[in-house]
Amino acid sequence: MDRRRFITNVIAVAGPFAGVACAGAQGGVKPVQGGYGRLRPVPDLRDGKVRLHLPEGFRYRSFSAAGEKFSDGSAVPGRHDGMAAFSGPKDSAILIRNHEVNGPVGAFGDKAKAYDPMAGGGTSTLRVTRYGEVIQSGPSLNGTMMNCSGGPMAWRAWVSCEETVNGPDVADDFSGGDNSKLTRKHGYIFEVPVNRAATARPIRSAGRFPHESVAFDPSTGALYMTEDNFSFPSGFYRYLPPKHPVQAGRLLDGGRLQMLAVKGAKRKDLSVGQRPAATYETVWVDIEDPDPTFTGRPAYDDAVQAVGRQGREAGAAVFSRLEGAVFHQGVVYFVSTQGGATAAGDTPPSGFGKGRGQVWAYETWSGRLRLAYESPRSAVLDLPDNVTASRRGTLVLCEDGDGDNYLRGLTKSGQIFDFCRLEPIPDDPGAEFAGSTFGPGGHTLYVNVQAKQGRSFAIWGPWERGLF
Prior knowledge:
By secondary structure, this protein is mainly beta. About 10% of the residues lie in helices and about 35% in strands.
């Protein structure tokens, strides 16, 4: 990068970054400033049923629910998760959507094209209008497993992440599935192009661990990746491809995998409560064996830590359940779902980490890590998961909490507000928001609800009235 472009980028990120980094001091005490007002039940334009609560003036339509048909006649799989929107012809959006299906349940779509014909996860690609009307849809990657989130790439591709290390070489995981039925190793990232078929080739040098999300830095070509290890510490990684992906036109294997460490503080535990706007200088440590070979079918709990343990032994920082990540103006914002201190009156969640959520901000150009926000209690922000950014820089956080689940906005000045509440589903208390992404031009916010019968939503309205 030349000096003029570098200075321009620094100026662009300094103001917004500094504002968000102060958010921890706000504590979410006044969660209304910058929002859109009181939420009210709104009927789905699809069938009139109330599924979402939104501010006045906003409307929505659901589409592509689990069990319905793609354009090719095959069935839409369930567990809709991470998603990205790309511009399509005639003001349409092209959505690439993950399906977080676990276990050897068989691939959806054409099994002849599957990475592993026994695995039921993958992605679907849909072309939709700004109002959630499906024009065309179909499978785009199949035979993968536990495709949780991922990230949009500047060369018009989606990178999908497997949140597991299942495979025939690993003992059965917590779900009770029989790993011996699988034909391939899992735990990788996969590229899914917008305009051509996915190759279903894993990027093995980017690691075999429970990947969650990917954020791409176009200035360097680096991919920043989060790890969601429910019962154990998680790490923040970056993958340095052998060639800049924009120049190559695709993501190449054979690069270098690294893990973030706090400078001068080996194995710094950042999963616990932090002071407001806590700031750390960082370094990166190399992962010597990103794709370890297992012998004797080790226990899943051992296999799932094999890569992360290498990083921590070299001094990498400890986080709790890193999930959503997004790149915006030189900063990677990423979510620690159970990071932070346990607030008085809140029940600590199960798994590693006892807080109700943190949002971290990593400056790619300076290597500085700052706490953007830490939830003071579950009523303000409860277990944030996927994240995206609006054109104004406000973050959209998808909750995965124990009670009502919201889409919440986090502004650059550190204010948090409610934008959307999921109508409770009587027989599905685990339903949650996932995969929020703004469509071309910012007219529509697309989002998924992961449920027993997952579905996607298109939401539109008077965005100019607030800070999205």
